[in-house]
């Protein structure tokens, strides 16, 4: 339980981490874009500064020129002032010279006036350029400040996300450490429980032997004294295994296989219908590529994008029901437990239909309120809204009857056996009603598509999407008709197969009795198989211990592989959804390509109609041979230089497409190979880590044993030294005792010698006397 909770936490945190990582990437991209924009603005600012410097230099040169001109004017005025009195004196003599001076003065005045006007114009230009440069510089500086603030905000968001991620990692590591401690305690408790279970098994074995002895005695008494017939009571008779009807099981499996094929077709049609409806909302009445669609259609599109998570489980539930019907089982309503799962999936899909129905009706009303909607189109929209309501009601009715059929396998009191045939009949009627509703939807939608195609604002994308929706609706109609006819043809067999059950009884009473009967059937089959098989040799004890170690290391690696398989299945489901999306996009692109090729062919025909008769024949031959291989097309189009460009472009596009497709296939294969290798290496590393953990545990146990052995050795050495010291002490004491005894003996000998000497002296004295 703890591992499941931990796994759920890890999955949630992994999802949050993926979301945060995606946001982090988006923010990083925004920061990089803003940095690039700021760099570009800085470059523009540098260019403006350079232009300003140039203008300042020009202004300086102009001011210098103006100063020169002003000095020249002053000099000319001084000369004029000097020349005026001279002219008065020499007026009579120099009329010709005065005329020349007046002409020079007029020339100088004109030159001065031009210079003044030019100076004034340059001043105005310089002032305007300076004002424009200041304005641009102010705008760029304000924009640079805003971009710097946005970059700082983005960096703060990135820092916050990284800090949050690190905090979650630390939290997960703490949780992991706690769970490891908890797992160790649980392992200890499990060991204790195993010991207790072994004790309980011994007690159970003793009790079983005692009870088996009593049971044999009681059975002998019952057989001799009390006869009992289990077919007399229906409760007991339901536990008896009925006769195996292989033909019935094969027939039911064949019917289930046909139903699975029809449901798969229906699921594919529903997926296409919801997906193309989502695409249509994005382009009509407002194209999302040009303008934003309404919030209602956005919400409706978001709900329709989730259709696969509700439609796909219908196929899975039917597949599980088909797999549960085998040749060895007994197939009746009480034993079809998987029908409940299919009913639950159908209930979730009906909840999805109820959720999108108001948005669908409001979307049709929004189309009616559009300025492009005519009265005929508005009438078709109203008919379609009524048809959608009928479709949801038919699905609800069908789900109600299927839920009733699933009750005998879960709640025996929910549906009486007398009502089985009526419920099956109502299921067939509901399927026929579903077929009729789909025929009405197909009819009304085809009329709606025809009216929309005649509108002047109808785009090619809208026409293509309507054709795809019509094809999916036609597929839904055909699938509903097939399922309805299939169920009507097999309705009598379904009603007749309800009596299939225990012998001499009305049938199974409860799901529990049916489950017990199936268990007895399996036990009987395994017992019959065990009688046919020879007994296997027992595994030696040492080999069993080795296998146990391998099993302990492999079970944990198996859990890791199971997690990897679960992740791979989630990736596969996401990739399948993306594959369906891109397949639909490829279909739309293919239709567009065909129409574009047709348009180019028509244009080529129209351009070649004004040429000569021979060239027209050659162009016709080229257009007729365009569907053949490239060699014949080039051979035909050699004399025509104007129309031979289309096959070259198409061949070049095909070569590029083939090259990129081959490259994509190669990269995907390399990616899959790398993923498989990484998974393999991860599994090997995990298994090696588990083996290393087991080896470390065994090493710890061996080290503990070595410590105990060393302690025993040291204890024995201490005992040996103590005994050796005691023996040495005893030997020393004995040597001391012997020394003392020798000393006493020497003293006694000396005393004896002295006594002898004294006795000899006394004897000599006596003799002398």
Automatic annotation (TrEMBL):
Keywords: Coiled coil, Endosome, RNA-binding
Main location: other
Keyword RNA-binding among UniProt keywords: yes
GO cellular component terms, A-Z: early endosome; membrane
Region (Disordered): 84-104, 749-769
GO MF entry, a single one: RNA binding
Superkingdom, natural source: Eukaryota
A Pfam entry, by short name: KLRAQ
Coiled-coil annotated spans: 3-72, 137-196, 558-592, 685-726
Protein's cellular compartments: Early endosome
Domain Protein phosphatase 1 regulatory subunit 21 N-terminal: residue ranges: 11-112
Biased composition (Low complexity): 95-104
InterPro entries on file: PPP1R21 (IPR040024), PPP1R21_C (IPR049372), PPP1R21_N (IPR019343), PPP1R21_six_helix (IPR019348)
Listed name of the protein: Protein phosphatase 1 regulatory subunit 21
Highest classification ranks of the organism: Eukaryota, Metazoa, Chordata, Craniata, Vertebrata
Encoding gene per record: PPP1R21
């Amino acid at each position: 339980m703890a591992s499941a909770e931990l796994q759920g936490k890890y999955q949630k945190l992994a999802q949050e981490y993926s979301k945060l990582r995606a946001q982090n990437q988006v923010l990083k991209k925004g920061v990089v874009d803003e940095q690039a924009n700021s760099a570009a603005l800085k470059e523009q600012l540098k260019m403006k500064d350079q232009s300003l410097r140039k203008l300042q230099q020009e202004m300086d040169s102009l001011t210098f020129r103006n100063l020169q001109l002003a000095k020249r004017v002053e000099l000319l005025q001084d000369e004029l002032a000097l020349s005026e009195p001279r002219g008065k004196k020499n007026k009579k003599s120099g009329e010709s010279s005065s005329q020349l001076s007046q002409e020079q003065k007029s020339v100088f005045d004109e030159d001065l006036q031009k210079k003044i006007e030019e100076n004034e114009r340059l001043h105005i230009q310089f002032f305007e350029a300076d004002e424009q440069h200041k304005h641009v510089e102010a705008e760029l500086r304000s924009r640079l400040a805003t971009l710097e603030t946005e970059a700082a905000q983005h960096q703060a968001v990135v820092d916050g996300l990284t800090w949050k991620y690190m905090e979650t990692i630390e939290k997960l590591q703490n949780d992991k450490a706690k769970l490891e401690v908890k797992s160790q305690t649980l392992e200890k408790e499990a060991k204790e429980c195993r010991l207790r279970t072994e004790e309980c098994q011994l007690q159970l074995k003793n009790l079983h032997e005692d009870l088996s002895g009593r049971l044999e005695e009681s059975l002998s008494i019952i057989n001799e004294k009390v006869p009992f017939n289990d077919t007399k009571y229906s409760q007991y008779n339901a536990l008896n295994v009925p006769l195996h009807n292989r033909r019935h099981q094969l027939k039911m499996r064949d019917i289930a296989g046909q139903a699975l094929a029809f449901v798969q077709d229906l699921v594919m049609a529903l997926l296409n219908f919801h997906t193309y409806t989502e695409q249509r909302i994005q382009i009509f009445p407002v194209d999302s590529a040009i303008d934003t669609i309404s919030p209602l259609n956005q919400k409706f599109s978001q709900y329709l994008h989730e259709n696969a998570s509700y439609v796909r489980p219908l196929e899975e539930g039917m597949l599980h029901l088909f797999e549960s019907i085998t040749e060895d089982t007994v197939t009746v309503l009480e034993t079809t437990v998987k029908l409940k799962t299919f009913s639950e999936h159908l209930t979730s899909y009906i909840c999805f239909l109820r959720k999108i129905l108001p948005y669908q009706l409001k979307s049709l009303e929004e189309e009616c309120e559009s300025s492009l909607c005519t009265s005929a189109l508005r009438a078709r929209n109203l008919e379609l809204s009524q048809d959608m309501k009928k479709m949801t009601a038919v699905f609800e009715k069908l789900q109600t009857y299927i839920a009733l059929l699933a009750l005998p396998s879960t709640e025996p009191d929910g549906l009486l056996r007398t009502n089985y045939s009526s419920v099956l009949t109502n299921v067939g009627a509901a399927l026929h009603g579903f077929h009729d509703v789909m025929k009405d939807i197909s009819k009304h939608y085809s009329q709606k598509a025809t009216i929309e195609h005649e509108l002047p604002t109808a785009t090619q994308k809208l026409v293509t999407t309507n054709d795809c929706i019509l094809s999916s609706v036609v597929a839904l109609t055909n699938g509903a008709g097939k399922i309805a006819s299939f169920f009507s043809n097999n309705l009598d067999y379904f009603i007749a197969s309800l009596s299939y059950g225990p012998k001499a009884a009305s049938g199974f009473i409860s799901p529990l009795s049916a489950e017990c009967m199936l268990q007895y059937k399996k036990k009987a089959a395994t017992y019959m198989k065990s009688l046919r098989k020879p007994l296997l040799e027992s595994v030696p004890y040492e080999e069993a211990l080795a296998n146990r170690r391998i099993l302990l290391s492999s079970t944990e690696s198996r859990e890791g592989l199971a997690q990897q398989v679960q992740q791979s299945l989630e990736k596969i489901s996401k990739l399948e959804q993306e594959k369906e999306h891109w397949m639909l996009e490829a279909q739309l692109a293919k239709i567009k390509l065909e129409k574009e090729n047709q348009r180019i062919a028509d244009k080529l025909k129209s351009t070649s109609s004004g040429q000569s008769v021979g060239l027209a024949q050659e162009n016709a031959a080229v257009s007729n041979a365009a569907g053949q291989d490239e060699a014949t097309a080039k051979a035909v189009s050699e004399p025509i230089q104007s129309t031979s460009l289309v096959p070259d472009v198409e061949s070049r596009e095909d070569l590029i497409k083939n090259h990129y497709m081959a490259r994509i296939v190669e990269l995907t294969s390399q990616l899959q190979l790398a993923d498989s290798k990484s998974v393999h290496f991860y599994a090997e590393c995990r298994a090696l880590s588990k083996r290393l953990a087991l080896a470390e545990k065994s090493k710890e146990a061996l080290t503990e044993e070595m410590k105990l052995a060393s302690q025993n050795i040291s204890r024995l050495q201490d005992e040996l030294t103590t005994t050796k010291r005691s023996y040495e002490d005893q030997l020393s004491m004995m040597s001391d005792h012997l020394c003392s005894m020798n000393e006493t003996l020497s003293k006694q000998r000396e005393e004896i010698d002295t006594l002898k000497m004294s006795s000899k002296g006394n004897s000599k004295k006596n003799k002398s006397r």
